[in-house]
Amino acid sequence: MRQKYFLILVCIFYGGVLFSCKTDLKGNLKNNLTPETHTVVDTIIRIGADRMNAQVELKWWGDDADGFIKGYEFSFDSVITSSTHWVFTSNQDSTFILTIPPGKDTIDFTFWVRAIDNLGSPDPTPAHLGLPIKNSPPSVQFISATNNPVISFPVVRFYWKGTDPDGDENLSRYEICWNDTAQTPYSIDVIASSATFIASTFSTTSPSSNVYLNNDLTAQPFLMSGMILNDTNLLYIRAVDKAEAKSAFISSYKIFIKKPHSSNLVVEAYTSPAQSASALTFYSQNLTASGVADFDTLNLFQQQGGVYTQLAPDNITQSRIFSLFNHIVWFSNDASKSLSLGQRTLDNFFNANGKLFMAVYVSSTFDEQSTFLDFTPVQSLVAYSDTALILQDTSSVFSQQSGYPDLKSSVIISNVKPFNLITGSTPIYNANLIGKKISTNFLFPWSGASTVMASKTNQSGQINFIFSSLELQKLNGLSNAAQLFQKLFVTELGM
User: CA separation (Å) from 303 to 51, 58, 174, 331, 483?
Assistant: First the structure.
């Protein structure tokens, strides 16, 4: 019986507890409290020249009494309405470039920002800040390239850098002129940091030019006027920002742009002025004697004050210069410089069916494992340990093909580099060489490979490259250079 009454009391107790808990859960939920937003600075007062630049850094923060802030929304609308476009961010600071309308140099912006709480509720009273902005004019300067030629055929390139105190994103475009800023400027995209100008015709001394931006292979849709051939030229440039504020025009260095008058180019690539003059005279006289009287010249490695005067600023530009011509006669006392440059700049020339003759002196320091020879008829240079090959001043250079005259050296050449041929190449001359043991100075007749001039053909089977590791002006001991030039340049290369 006692046990029965005890169980009844326990049930009454727990029933009361449950009833009292249920009663405590009754009531009304409190409404979510909206967040509050603050800017670090609540007022900016600046007038006249003291106004802020169009690039501004702003900071803000927010708090929420019954939750947390998950982000912010901002706007630059002048008045906040139900249609205001808000931009969400989780940051509490940002740098803005405020675009001033074209034609104005000052304007007042209003920055609005509102916090968003964890329930997605925005601050109904956004913080705001007035921003008195002034536009600052941009600037631009020419940038020196590796080479800055003062003489060039009408393929010229310039580099520059534009900046804007309001942020470089505020730049709109560049405007350029040849020689006269009074003319209507040529407009180019702000993404350009360089441009190449190529004359569209050589039939006039005042041609329009095609404009190629950066490394583009396609020209801009509009031609640019103002280039003058056979005269000194200046390129002028100015920067324009999004508010149409313009920098002053600045000018490039002076460059003489010469007009090509033939399809033949003689490339004199000697590094010694004395050798340069005599080699150019030899080639010019014998080309003329063989009937090739019309040719242009390029003094490739000429220097003044340690700076190249005619070498293009980059390989792309030099390649475009070579592509102006159908035939190139190239001679040099520096195989490394000439072959490395040729390898990097002659592809387009060959692809356009150009034909090249190259005669270079190959010194004992030339890297025999170099890849500079990859585009030539040469598979490898002949080299043996402790051995130098000599061409005597009375040594013969024998023709290996009909129609070529035998030649004789007119000087002693103490370092000759014969070569092995790539498959499909054809030997033209072998030399009668003397071997010399470097360690003992012992001389002996050389019976190894002795090819010093060879040719290779293009895909059409035409000879398009003749290479010589001997300089032609040193092989006129029989005074028959004109006959050699007739065969090489008229018969074989079609100049």
Answer: 51, 54, 32, 17, 33
Residues 169 and 103 both lie in one domain: no
The reply to whether 274 and 423 lie within a common domain is: yes
The number of residues in the chain equals 495
Instruction: Please answer whether residues 178 and 232 qualify as being in contact, where contact means their C-beta atoms are separated by less than 8 angstroms.
Output: no
In a domain, 303, yes or no: yes
User: Do residues 45 and 61 both lie within one domain?
Assistant: yes
Looking at the 3D structure of the chain, how many domains does it have?
A: 3
Domain stop point among 110, 134, 158: 134
In a domain, 405, yes or no: yes
Phi and psi at residue 71, in whole multiples of 5°?
Answer: 170, -170
**Strands of 151-152's sheet, edge to edge?**
151-152, 255-257, 231-233
Amino acid present at 424: G
200 and 70 part of one domain: no
Same domain, 439 and 314: yes
Q: Is the pLDDT score of 39 beyond 70?
A: yes
The pLDDT, as a whole number, for residue 27 is: 59
Range(s) of the domain holding residue 205 = 139-257
Instruction: Assess whether pLDDT exceeds 50 at residue 3.
Output: no
Residue 488 has a CB neighbour count (10 Å cut-off) of 25
Q: Which residues contact 309 (CB under 8 A, 6 or more apart)?
A: 149, 150, 151, 299, 302, 303
Buried residues in 371-386 as b, exposed as e (16+ CB within 10 A): ebbebbbbeebbeeee
pLDDT at 243 exceeding the cut of 60: yes
Residues 6+ apart with CB under 8 A from 476: 282, 407, 410
Residues 448 and 481 in one domain: yes
| CATH number of the domain bearing residue 484 | 3.40.50
Provide the pLDDT confidence category of residue 209 given band limits of 50, 70 and 90: very high
Residues 338-356 have a mean pLDDT of 96
Residue 133 is which amino acid? I
Last residue of a domain, one of 81, 102, 134: 134
Please check whether residues 325 and 470 belong to one and the same domain. Answer: yes
Report whether pLDDT(9) > 80: no
81 part of a folded domain: yes
* DSSP class of 492: I
Per residue in 152-171, pLDDT (tens digit) is 999 999 999 999 887 888 89
Q: Are 91 and 215 found together in one domain?
A: no
Mean pLDDT value of segment 7-22: 45
Would 294 be classed as within a structural domain? yes
The SS3 assignment for 276 reads helix
Is-contact 71 116, C-beta < 8 A?
yes
Nearest 5°: phi and psi at 34?
-75, 155
Among residues 347, 340, 345, the alpha carbon closest in space to that of 370 is found at 340
Report d(CA 492, CA 463) in Å as an integer.
7
Task: Read off the pLDDT of residues 378-428 as tens digits, 9 standing for 90 and up.
Answer: 999 987 888 999 999 989 999 999 999 999 999 999 999 999 999 999 999
